[in-house]
Write a structure and sequence with these properties.
Blueprint (H helix, E strand, L loop, with lengths): L1 E2 L37 E8 L10 E5 L5 E6 L5 E7 L2 E9 L9 E5 L3 E4 L2 E2 L9 E9 L9 E7 L5 E8 L5 E7 L2 E8 L6 E7 L5 E8 L8 E6 L12 E7 L5 E8 L5 E7 L4 E6 L4
Parallel strand pairs: 2-8, 2-9, 10-16
Antiparallel strand pairs: 1-8, 2-5, 3-4, 3-6, 6-7, 10-13, 11-12, 11-14, 14-15, 17-20, 18-19, 18-21
Length: 289
């Protein structure tokens, strides 16, 4: 830490005048402008790894007290950086990052007028530097985002078996994200009730650190079908087992069309599945033994 000598004025330049005669006298005046950076300081330093090796190409960034970025620069081949001129202040933060390293914690510092301040930073290697992400968007066939779709990530093993790595859900804009994904082949299964499920395959390697997918789900034509269930009881409110129950569709003209029949279970309950949208009635009876 040291104070630096600064120019009081901006280096000025006069107009040119010519001496033409013997013993001639000319006058050259020059008005100097105050140096606006007279009180500015300088910040220097070196960015190194845990072993003390300089890191070239690291970005060094300075923030104000509110976390707003003020300035940034890059280290040279020897890992050195310089900010100059830099305005004095009592509360600045400095940090650094480089490929393969973790973003360093913000370091508080103050810079006095005309001060040269040295701040060296040691970066920690990122153990997840070689891991990737898989991001995607899920849409309908008309381009509308699908929210709350289930997205499962499976890693394909060498024997073509699959191992479930993670499960997530799409957000309100149909987006999903898997982080810390190792290199390999993956299958992404996407599903939501009302749509036909989709399976996509993606390869993550050194040349593709970010996997991007756009998935389109088709409407399931059977998804609109529902179920109709109920109990068949006698006049004493007792369940009637093995009763025959017939399902009728109520047509637009009020006529009834039988479409399915079944029998009640021991608790007098019946169930019809895969029933299309519409109006329905049931009729039931039981033969004497």
């Amino acid at each position: 830490m040291s104070n630096q000598v600064s120019d009081l004025y901006i280096l000025g330049q006069s107009v040119a005048k010519q001496l033409t005669g013997i013993g001639q006298e000319i006058r050259i005046d020059l008005d100097l402008q105050p140096n606006p950076n007279i009180d500015s300081g300088t910040i220097i330093g070196t960015i190194k790894d845990e072993n003390g090796n300089p890191i070239p190409g690291a970005i060094v960034k300075i923030f104000d007290a509110q976390g707003n970025p003020i300035a940034h620069t890059f280290t040279d081949a020897q890992g050195n950086y310089t900010f100059s001129p830099f305005p004095p202040g009592t509360q600045y933060y400095i940090s650094s990052i480089a490929p393969g390293f973790i973003f360093s914690p913000l370091q508080l510092f103050a810079l006095q007028p005309r001060q040269q301040l040295q701040i060296d930073i040691t970066l920690t290697s990122d153990p997840k530097a070689n891991l990737s992400i898989i991001a995607g968007d899920v849409f309908t066939t008309t381009g509308e985002p699908i929210q709350d779709a289930i997205v499962q990530l499976f890693k394909v093993n060498q024997d073509q078996t699959e191992t479930l790595i993670g499960t997530t859900f799409t957000n309100q804009t149909g987006q999903f994200l898997f982080m810390d994904v190792d290199q390999g082949t993956y299958r992404i299964r996407t599903s939501k009730f009302g749509y036909i499920s989709d399976t996509s395959t993606i390869l993550i390697d050194a040349n593709r650190m970010i996997g991007k997918l756009v998935i389109t789900l088709n409407v399931d034509p059977n998804a609109s079908k529902g179920t109709i269930s109920g109990y068949i009881k006698d006049d004493n409110n007792q369940p009637i087992a093995n009763a025959v129950v017939t399902l009728y569709r109520v047509e637009a003209d009020g006529k009834l069309t039988p479409i399915k029949f079944t029998r009640t279970n021991a608790q007098g309950m019946y169930l019809f599945s895969d029933v299309p949208n519409g109006n329905y009635k049931v009729k039931a009876n039981k033969l004497s033994v």
